[in-house]
Amino acid sequence: MNTQTVNISLPKKLVEIMDDFAEKQFSTRSELIRTAVISYVNKDKKLFELFSYAEKKAKEQNIKEKDVEDIIDEIRNGK
Fold first, then answer.
1. What is the SS3 string spanning 8-55?
2. Which pLDDT belongs to residue 79?
3. What pTM, to 2 d.p., does this model score?
4. How far is CA 30 from CA 18, 19, 61, in A?
5. What's the mean per-residue pLDDT of the chain?
6. How far from 48 is each of 34, 51, 54, 78, CA to CA, in Å?
7. What pLDDT is attached to residue 8?
8. 3-class secondary-structure state, position 68
9. Domain for residue 40, yes or no?
10. 22 lies in which domain range?
11. Residue 25: which residues within 8 A CB-CB, separation 6 or more?
């Protein structure tokens, strides 16, 4: 794996918690941090893709941001 060392500052208590967790669940502190960052980025990426898709569809249907709440209310009320 092509890696790069990154230095970060964390509260001591958080490092203690991470180390305990890493010892039980992962091989190293680095592996725990790598897994957490990948999970966070993937979740954020999926959310970004969802919003981008919604924005594209809204533009196609000429829906303005101010119209969204009214449209949601109509759908909830079965109209």
1. CCCCHHHHHHHHHHHHHHCCCHHHHHHHHHHHHHHHHHHHHHHHHHHH
2. 67
3. 0.56
4. 10, 10, 46
5. 88
6. 21, 5, 10, 29
7. 92
8. helix
9. yes
10. 12-76
11. 32
Is residue 2 a part of any domain in this protein?
Answer: no
Q: What is the rounded CA–CA span in Å between residue 76 and residue 29? A: 47
Query: Would 7 be classed as within a structural domain?
Result: no
Please report, as a single letter, which amino acid is at residue 1. Answer: M
Q: What pLDDT was estimated at residue 15?
A: 94
Q: Does residue 39 lie in a domain region?
A: yes
Identify the residue with better confidence: 26 or 38: 38
Which two structure tokens, joined as six digits, stand for 33? 């941090």
How many domains does the structure of the chain reveal? 1
- Structure token digits, residue 13: 């208590």
| Residue 58 DSSP SS3 | helix
